[in-house]
Amino acid sequence: MWQLANGYLEYLAGDLYAAEKSFTHLKKNLKNKLLIEQLDVFMLAHKINSYESIDSEYEKEIADIITGNVFYKKYKSFPDFLNDRLAYVYKTQGNPGKAFRCRYSINALKPNPQPDIIEDLIDVCRKEDPSKFERALITKNDGTTIENELLDLKGTYFLAQGRLEAALEVLKRIPRSEWDLYQFNPFIDIVEDCVNECILPDSMLYFNKVEIIEKIFELEYKAKADFEHGAEYYYQLGTAFYNMSYFGHSWQAMDFFRSGANWSYDKDGIFPDYYFPFGNLENRDLTKAFEYFEKTRITANDFELGARAAFMAAKCEQRMYYISKDCKYNSYGNEIPVFPEEYNTYFQLLKENYSATAFYQQIIEECKFFEAYARN
After folding, report:
1. How many domains in the chain?
2. What is d(CA 164, CA 110) in angstroms, rounded to the nearest whole number?
3. Domain end (from 95, 129, 160)
4. What angle do CA 55, 14, 47 make, to 5 degrees?
């Protein structure tokens, strides 16, 4: 027993060579069943902790430990211990995807996708002969791999970053039969913000992510080529980018998870979350939407469309204030916020230039915020 304890202390001290020597010597002499089992447990822990690099041969050995070692199954701390060690080794040897999967599911990556992790896992999925352990990391319950899910994650990440060409190229690698699993229509214009259980027209067309990007390219071309109707196309583009943001009804086109519960802990746009190791990155950037609404207002020959674009630009300004460091507004008080002058440009513009439009009267009735400003 004391020799066993001595070997364990060598192991704890980090002298793995001395510990292995002690354990091997002791293995020849032990007779007591309980001590033999304890020694086998120590030796399994020693083996796991000895991994400094991992190749296909080691992965085969690891798979055998997981599936066949009785002590790995009996002592419930071993899976976490093994996963922690493998995650550390994979990360240090440049396999961030494998390191991530040793600890988390793919769903834990979706709130804040990490490109290096996605690429590493895609490479594993495309291996001609992955190891048994690698197959366990990338195989779903139905026997298929997570490659299409990773491509959707990568394409959606590019879409949220504004890299539309890259997003389209990636998303088109997914079999066409799976494109329609997620459908939206960010081009539908509704005055009141709605993110869940929105009431949209029954006859509304739906677009998958590939079709959304292709529609955006089509509208951008038409806006530049058709001067007479360019403002209408710009407005559709602004509407799409607004609705695909955190604030719109089609937010799931650019994001996989939405929550405002921890906004007070915002750090560089990332919100900490217990379940997600990289936190939750919300798609709150309205720069693109704002630019298109301003282009609409400037090029519109129709005052009604100009008024609508000014109102949407004002909404963008409001949301920009809410997410700024200057914001002191507490929504729980149910009070109409007082916006600083730099965030109130387009409400003023709407009031001064578009008060004769029918849309202006509609907004006064439907938007309590604007009604309050219009009365001042």
Report:
1. 2
2. 19
3. 160
4. 35
